[in-house]
Write a structure and sequence with these properties.
This protein has two domains: 55 residues, Nuclear Transport Factor 2, Chain: A; 68 residues. The protein contains six helices and four strands; from the N terminus they run E-E-E-E-H-H-H-H-H-H. Helix 4 crosses helix 5. The longest helix has 15 residues. It is extended and about 50 Å long.
Length: 141
């Protein structure tokens, strides 16, 4: 029997995606991804071994880079090239993706797409905040 260690439910327009981080009784860890279509409640489920996850993530990130071309319609419809450059500059100065989305009146996904398309590595928000706190604590008053 497998135990759920962590679970996330993603709610989209036409479907729900339930992602579970699981562990078997023999302590093997794996991920399950289950999509439920909102209209007919049809379910699709896949199971991913932990050892396969890095390659899958890498592949998806490369696809995301291709999808987030700065010349794509998503970016064009929301932000001019000048504003996109401003997003990059502000992110590199330490402004969070969430704050940038608020400043530019768009979604976090669009900000992420702009950063990916400019080959900017997106820092984990918790790691970034921890680094900022450490930096502040080193300041001399």
């Amino acid at each position: 029997m497998a135990e759920i260690l962590k679970s996330t439910l993603l709610d989209f327009d036409k479907s729900f995606i339930h992602i579970n981080f699981m562990m078997t009784s023999s302590e093997d860890k794996f991920i399950t991804v289950e999509q439920t279509m909102a209209g007919n409640y049809r379910k699709q489920k896949i199971k991913i071994k932990a050892t396969d996850l890095p390659q899958i993530i890498s592949t998806l990130q490369s696809y995301q880079k291709e999808l987030s071309d700065p010349n794509s319609d998503i970016c064009k419809n929301y932000l001019s090239k000048e504003k996109q450059q401003s997003v990059v500059e502000r992110y590199l100065k330490g402004i969070s993706i969430h704050d940038l989305a608020l400043q530019f009146d768009c979604t976090i996904e669009i900000i992420s797409a702009i950063l990916y398309s400019n080959e900017i590595e997106i820092e984990d928000e918790k790691t970034l905040k921890r680094e900022q706190m450490i930096e502040r604590s080193k300041r001399k008053y």
